[in-house]
Design goal:
- This protein has 90 residues and is an alpha+beta fold.
- The strands form 3 sheets. The chain has a two-stranded antiparallel sheet with strand order 1-2. A two-stranded antiparallel sheet has the order 3-4. A two-stranded antiparallel sheet has the order 5-6.
- 11% of the residues lie in helices and 22% in strands.
- It is globular, with a radius of gyration of 13 Å.
Length: 90
């Protein structure tokens, strides 16, 4: 775990694997650096599927191409029961 000064909380997974996006106001996996659509405070909301707070969740999250976020497992469940193209998620 490491403390992210931008988030103001401790994160799990190792500082070298994440970066803090100032616009989104959250840490994301380094693979999303310059590769995601920023939405102001996008992680400061509840997952639209399970309603758990995304910002403090330890579950892995996904950023959709539209910039919205949800838990990876919730997205998986949603895609199984809805007709969402797999290309909509990252």
């Amino acid at each position: 775990p490491y403390h992210c000064d931008g988030c103001g909380i401790c994160r799990v997974g190792g500082r070298e694997n994440f970066f803090h996006c100032e616009t989104c106001a959250c840490c994301y996996a380094v693979g999303l650096y310059n590769n995601h659509r920023c939405i102001q405070d996008s992680m400061h909301q509840n997952c639209p599927v399970c309603q758990e707070d995304l910002f403090t969740s330890t579950a892995e999250c996904r950023v959709l191409r539209c910039g919205h976020t949800m838990h990876r497992d919730c997205l998986r469940q949603l895609m199984e029961h809805q007709h969402w193209p797999a290309a909509s998620s990252r």
